[in-house]
Design brief:
With 983 residues, this protein is mostly beta strands. Strand 49 and strand 50 form a beta hairpin. Helix 8 runs parallel beside helix 9. Belongs to the glycosyl hydrolase 35 family.
C-alpha cells in the first residue's frame, strides 16, 4: 500500500482512530456487482420518440427510472429572455434535471381573444432554451395558478366577466378553452414524447379543493383533462393537491376512459419550526390510509418549500425581508426536509421557488411586494446562495445513483442517540441500502448507527440531516458503506471517480469492498487508509478536497475517491457528453461542456481567481475555457489542470445618479380639468362579487375596462350647501390608498389599514375615508385618485379575484347631492411591455415613463428632496453604464430615506415598471434591474413616479445603483425592446 507520508503526519489522532495502515503491493479485486451502465441521459429535443410513464416508485422515461429533481422558476418574473438561459444553466449545473414553470394567463392576455407570446412573453423561446440546457419541463398553465400574482393569474378582464370561475360554468369555460388553445399550440411543439422539446409533465389547475366532491368541480377537471388531451398534449397530466388529501387522485374524476396517464401530486410548505412531516413509506397515510394517498402513482411533491414569500412591511403584519426567509429556511432546513421527503418515497420533487425573481409592474398579488426573491437557493439577482449546497449535492446524488429511484422501506434501525431519527430503505433490485439520519434536537451529535454488523459513528448537526448509503456501486467497485453522503460517480477515461460530501471538519469513514489489498495513495488532504478483512477503510476529516487513488490489479479500473466538504462540492461539475462523462473542478459555474476531438471546450463563470481541472474521456488532451485554449498538464489524479489560474471578475463601476429633472402632475385634481372624454360611470350592474350600494351606479374600475394601477374619478355635484363632510368608501388590495380634492383643493389622503394576518386571509380591503368639507351652494367637482394595488387571488375557488376595485360609493353628511362620476384608468396596454406595466397616472398616460420622451419645461432637481404636497411628482434622469464585455454584473436600484416620510415610488427603467417602493412601509429598498432591460453598455432612462400623501415632507432621499453580483462569463444578453413614445 502506498501512503503519502506528508499527509499522514498531518493527521491528528490517527492512532485514536484505531485503524491499521496495512502493508503494500496487493491489488484490490474488482467489485462483485456489475457496472450499472451510464448515468441517465440528458434530455434534449433530439427528434426521437420517447416513452414517458411511471409506476408506484418513480417516473420511467424510455424504460429507465428517473427521479425528478426540479426547480421552480417563472419566466414572467424575469422580463429578459436572455437571462432565462442564465438561470436554466445554473439550475442544470447545480444538479436539477427539471424546471417547473407556471404560465400566467394575465401576462399573455390584454383582452379576451388576444394572446401575446412575443418578446418577454416568448414561451416558445423559453421552452427551446430549457431543452437546449438539458432540462425536462413541467408546464403549469393553470388556468388558475395562484403564485402570488394578481388575481392568481386570471386576466384583469376576466374579473369583469360573468361565469363562476374555476367551475364548469360554460361562460367561464369558453374563456378557459381560448387560453388553453393558445398555450397548448406552443406547448405541443415541445413535448418530450415527440422529441421536439422536453416537456415531461403538464399540470391542470392548482390546489383546487373547494369543489372536490361537487359535480361542478369534477366536471371542470374532466373538461380540462379532455381539452388538454384534445389539444395534443400526450405527456402524463397531474394536479397539485394542497396537502396530501388525496384530492384528484386517479379515478376521482372522468378521464375519458384513459388510464395510467394521470399522476397524483401534492404540495407541502411545512413550518421550519416543526418536525418535517412523514408522508410516504413512514407516514400514517392519507385520509383513506394509503401511504401516499395514491398507491399506484409515485410519491410526487409538485411544490415543496424552497423558501417562503414575504408580505409588505408595516405595523402589524410586518414583512421582514427575504434575508429572514433565507435564515429560517436555510441550507440545513432544505437538507433536513428534502432528505425526509426522499426517505418517504418521494421521487418527484419540485423546489418552489429555486429562482423567485421579480413581480414587476402590477404582477404582485396583494399579499406580496415587488421582489419575489422567496429566500430561494438562487437569489433575485441570479446569485447563488449557501442554500444551493444541499440542492446541488442531492441533485447530483439522485442523478448518479439510480438505486434511489426504487426504494422500499426496510427494517427499522434503532439509533440509540437522543433526538436522532433514522429512516432505513432498500433497493429491492440492487440490494443497496439507504439511511437518512435526522437530528431534530438543538445540539450537534454523533449518532451510533448499527449497520452491517458494525456500529458507525455518524456526525449529524442540530436541526440537520444526512444520507448514508451501503452497497451501492461506484462503477467498478462497491461501497460497503460511508458516513459521508455520496454525491456522484462516473467513469472518466480509464478511471472511476467517486465523490462523497459532508460538512467541513467532520471525520468520515468510507469503506470499499476489496477482496485483496489495493494500492492506495493519498494525493491531497489528510486521510487514514487501512485494509482489513476484504475492505479498504478510509478515514478523513473533511477539509477542501481530499483525494485518494485506489488501484488494484484485479479491478478493471483505478478509482479516484474524492471527499469534498460543502464549499468544495459546489465547485465540482459533472457533465455527460456523447463521448462520455466529464468532471470539472474549480470555477464558480460550469455552463456547457462540449468535446471537440481532443479538446474539452468549456464555458462558465468565475467570480474570484480559480483553478481549473478536468477529468475527461480518453483522448481528451486539451482544454478551452470561454473560447480560450489553456495550457494544461496531466495531474497525478488523472486530470488535466490549467497551468495558470482563471481570472476572476473585473471591477464594475457604477455612476452616481445625477441630472434629475422634475415635473409635478395630477392636473385631474384641478377644478377646470377637461374630463369630457372620460367614461361616464353609467353601469347599473357589476360583475364584481362586492355588492353595489342600492341606487348607486357601479364605480368599480374593472367594469369600465381599467384593470391595473391607479384610477381617477371626477364627480360633479350641486346642492351640497350644508354638507359638513364627504365619505368616500373604496376597495383596493393591501396598501391601497385614496386621495381626494374638492374644487382643486386637497382634502387629504386615506390609506388602507395595514392588514393583520386575519384580514390578509380574508382578502377584504374596504375602507371609508371621511374628509371635512364646506362646499357651499353651486356646482362642485370632487377629484379622487385610487391606488388600487391588485386583485385578490382565488385560492378557495369562490371568485375572490372579482372583489371590486376602486370607489364603492360616496355620501355627504349634512346634504345629499347626486354625484355624476367620470372615470379614467390606464391607457391601452403597452404592446411590448404588456398589460401589467402601467396604471392610469397622468404621466403614464402621456408616456413620461418612456425613454425618448422629451420633457420640455422639466426643472432640475436634486436629491434628497423635501417637499410637502398631496399628489404625484415625476423625476427623470439618464445614466450611462460601461460594464466590460464578458462581465455579468447584476445591478439594482436602492432607495433610502427617513422612514417617517409618507410617499411611494414607481420605478420605470427604460419604460419598464420595475416595481413599487413604499418608503414608510418597506421592507424592500433594492429593486433588481435585469440586464437586457438594463443597458449595461450604454445609456438608460430612469423615471420615478412619486405619489405623496401630503401628510409629511416627501422624498426621494437617496437613489443609487447597487452592485448585487458580478462574474466573468455570463450569457450573451440581447437588449429587450424598449420603445419610446409613438410620435
Ligand atoms: C402554493 C401555490 C403556489 C404559491 C405557493 C406559496 O399553495 O400552489 O402557487 O402560491 O403556495 O408561495
Amino acid at each position: 500500500m502506498v501512503l503519502s507520508r506528508r499527509t499522514f503526519s498531518t493527521i491528528a489522532g490517527t492512532a485514536a482512530l484505531g485503524l491499521s495502515l496495512g502493508g503494500s503491493g496487493e491489488a484490490c479485486v474488482a467489485a462483485a456487482t456489475a457496472p450499472t451502465g451510464p448515468a441517465p441521459g440528458t434530455p434534449a429535443a433530439d427528434r426521437r420518440r420517447h416513452t414517458v410513464g411511471f409506476d408506484h416508485y418513480s417516473m420511467i422515461v424510455d424504460g429507465r427510472r428517473v427521479v425528478l429533481w426540479s426547480g421552480e422558476m417563472h419566466p414572467f418574473r424575469l422580463p429578459s429572455p436572455s437571462l432565462w438561459r442564465d438561470v436554466l444553466h445554473k439550475l442544470r449545473a447545480h444538479g436539477y434535471n427539471t424546471v417547473s414553470v407556471y404560465v400566467s394567463w394575465n401576462y399573455h392576455s390584454p383582452a379576451p381573444g388576444s394572446y401575446d407570446f412575443t418578446g418577454v412573453r416568448d414561451l416558445d423561446l423559453f421552452l427551446r432554451t430549457a431543452a437546449e440546457t438539458g432540462l425536462y419541463v413541467t408546464l403549469r398553465p393553470g388556468p388558475y395558478i395562484n403564485a402570488e400574482v394578481d388575481a392568481g393569474g386570471f386576466p384583469g378582464w376576466l374579473t369583469a366577466t360573468r361565469g363562476r370561475a374555476r367551475t364548469a360554468d360554460p361562460a367561464y369555460l369558453r374563456h378557459v378553452d381560448e387560453w388553453l388553445t393558445a398555450v397548448n399550440r406552443i406547448a405541443v411543439r415541445h413535448l418530450y414524447t415527440r422529441g421536439t422539446g422536453t416537456i415531461l409533465l403538464y399540470q391542470l389547475e392548482n390546489e383546487y379543493a373547494n369543489h372536490v366532491t361537487e359535480h361542478t368541480g369534477r366536471a371542470y377537471m374532466a373538461h380540462l383533462y379532455r381539452k388538454v388531451r384534445a389539444d395534443g398534449i400526450d405527456v402524463p397530466l397531474f394536479h397539485n393537491d394542497k396537502g396530501r388529501n388525496g384530492h384528484w387522485a386517479p379515478g376521482t374524476f372522468d378521464t375519458g376512459g384513459e388510464r395510467g396517464r394521470w399522476l397524483y401530486g401534492f404540495d407541502g410548505y411545512p413550518s421550519p419550526f416543526k418536525r418535517p412531516p412523514d408522508w410516504g413509506y413512514f407516514g400514517r397515510g392519507g385520509p383513506e390510509g394509503g401511504s401516499t394517498a395514491s398507491p399506484r402513482t409515485p410519491g410526487f411533491l409538485a411544490e415543496f418549500g424552497g423558501g417562503w414569500f414575504d408580505p409588505w412591511g408595516g405595523a402589524e403584519f410586518r414583512g421582514k425581508g427575504y434575508a429572514e426567509s433565507r435564515r429560517t429556511r436555510d441550507a440545513a432546513y432544505e437538507r433536513r426536509f428534502y432528505l425526509t421527503n426522499l426517505a418517504n418515497g418521494i421521487t418527484l420533487h419540485n423546489v418552489y421557488m429555486t429562482f423567485g425573481g421579480t413581480s414587476w409592474g402590477w404582477l404582485p398579488a396583494p399579499v406580496v411586494y415587488t421582489s419575489y426573491d422567496y429566500g430561494a437557493a438562487l437569489d433575485e439577482a441570479r446569485q447563488p446562495t449557501a442554500k444551493l449546497v444541499p440542492m446541488h449535492q442531492i441533485g447530483q446524488l439522485l442523478h448518479h445513483f439510480p438505486d434511489l429511484a426504487k426504494l422500499d422501506r426496510a427494517e427499522d434501525v434503532s439509533v440509540a442517540t437522543p433526538g436522532v431519527r433514522a429512516y432505513h430503505l432498500v433497493n429491492p433490485d440492487t440490494g443497496a441500502h439507504i439511511l437518512v439520519l435526522r437530528n431534530d434536537g438543538p445540539s450537534d451529535t454523533v449518532a451510533a448507527v448499527p449497520l452491517g454488523g458494525t456500529t458507525l459513528r455518524v456526525p449529524v448537526r442540530a436541526l440537520d440531516a444526512r444520507l448514508l448509503a451501503a452497497g451501492i456501486s461506484l462503477g467498478r467497485r462497491t461501497l460497503r458503506h460511508s458516513t459521508a453522503q455520496p454525491m456522484l460517480r462516473l467513469a472518466a477515461g480509464r478511471q472511476d471517480v467517486a465523490v462523497f460530501t459532508g460538512r467541513t471538519g467532520e471525520v468520515t469513514e468510507t469503506v470499499l469492498e476489496c477482496a485483496v489489498r489495493p494500492a492506495v495513495t493519498v494525493l491531497e488532504g489528510a486521510a487514514d487508509c487501512a485494509y482489513d478483512n476484504g475492505a479498504l477503510r478510509v478515514r478523513a476529516r473533511l477539509d477542501g478536497l481530499t483525494r485518494i487513488a485506489v488501484t488494484g490489479g484485479g479491478a478493471a479500473a483505478p478509482l479516484l475517491l474524492l471527499l469534498a466538504d460543502d464549499r468544495t462540492s459546489v465547485r465540482l461539475w459533472p457533465r455527460t457528453t456523447p463521448s462520455g462523462p466529464v468532471l470539472v473542478y474549480g470555477p464558480a459555474l460550469l455552463r456547457t461542456a462540449v468535446l471537440h476531438g481532443p479538446t474539452a471546450a468549456l464555458t462558465g463563470d468565475t467570480t474570484e481567481e480559480a483553478d481549473l481541472e478536468v477529468w475527461a474521456p480518453r483522448g481528451v488532451a486539451a482544454v478551452a475555457w470561454n473560447g480560450t485554449r489553456l495550457r494544461t498538464r496531466v495531474t497525478r489524479s488523472g486530470s488535466l489542470r490549467a497551468e495558470r489560474r482563471l481570472p476572476g471578475a473585473g471591477a464594475v463601476r457604477l455612476p452616481p445618479l445625477t441630472g434629475w429633472r422634475r415635473k409635478a402632475e395630477n392636473p385631474e385634481s384641478a377644478a377646470d380639468f377637461d374630463d369630457s372624454a372620460w367614461r361616464t360611470t353609467d353601469l347599473a350592474r357589476s360583475a364584481a362579487t362586492t355588492p353595489v350600494p342600492a341606487g348607486e351606479p357601479v364605480l368599480f374600475a374593472d367594469d369600465y375596462g381599467f384593470h391595473y394601477g391607479d384610477v381617477w374619478y371626477r364627480g360633479r355635484f350641486e346642492g351640497a350647501a350644508g354638507a359638513r363632510s364627504v365619505s368616500l368608501s373604496y376597495i383596493t388590495g393591501t396598501q391601497g390608498l385614496l386621495m381626494a380634492w374638492l374644487d382643486g383643493r386637497p382634502l387629504g389622503t386615506h390609506r388602507m389599514p395595514v392588514p393583520d394576518a386575519k384580514t390578509v386571509r380574508q382578502g377584504t380591503w374596504t375602507a371609508t375615508a371621511t374628509f371635512p368639507v364646506a362646499p357651499g351652494g353651486g356646482s362642485h367637482v370632487l377629484s379622487v385618485l385610487v391606488r388600487r394595488m391588485q386583485h385578490d387571488q382565488d385560492g378557495r375557488a369562490d371568485d375572490t379575484h372579482k372583489a371590486g376595485r376602486g370607489l364603492v360609493s360616496v355620501t355627504f353628511d349634512g346634504a345629499s347631492p347626486a354625484v355624476r362620476w367620470r372615470i379614467r384608468g390606464e391607457a391601452a396596454p403597452d404592446p411590448v411591455r404588456g398589460p401589467l406595466n402601467n396604471g392610469g397616472l397622468y404621466g403614464e398616460r402621456q408616456g413620461w415613463h418612456l425613454p425618448g420622451f422629451r420633457g420640455h419645461g422639466w426643472k432640475p432637481a436634486y436629491f434628497p428632496r423635501s417637499e410637502r404636497r398631496q399628489g404625484v411628482v415625476w423625476y427623470r434622469t439618464r445614466f450611462r453604464l460601461s460594464v466590460a464585455p464578458g462581465t455579468d454584473a447584476s445591478i439594482g436600484l436602492t432607495l433610502m430615506d427617513d422612514p417617517a416620510r409618507a410617499y411611494r415610488v414607481q420605478i420605470f427603467l427604460n419604460g419598464w415598471n420595475m416595481g413599487q417602493y413604499i418608503n414608510d412601509v418597506g421592507p424592500q429598498h433594492t429593486f433588481v434591474l435585469p440586464n437586457g432591460v438594463l443597458n449595461t453598455r450604454g445609456v438608460n432612462t430612469l423615471a420615478l413616479a412619486v405619489l405623496s400623501d401630503g401628510t409629511t415632507p416627501s422624498g426621494p432621499g437617496r437613489v443609487d445603483l447597487t452592485l448585487l453580483g458580478r462574474a466573468a462569463g455570463g450569457v450573451p444578453v440581447t437588449p429587450v425592446n424598449s420603445p419610446g413614445p409613438a410620435h
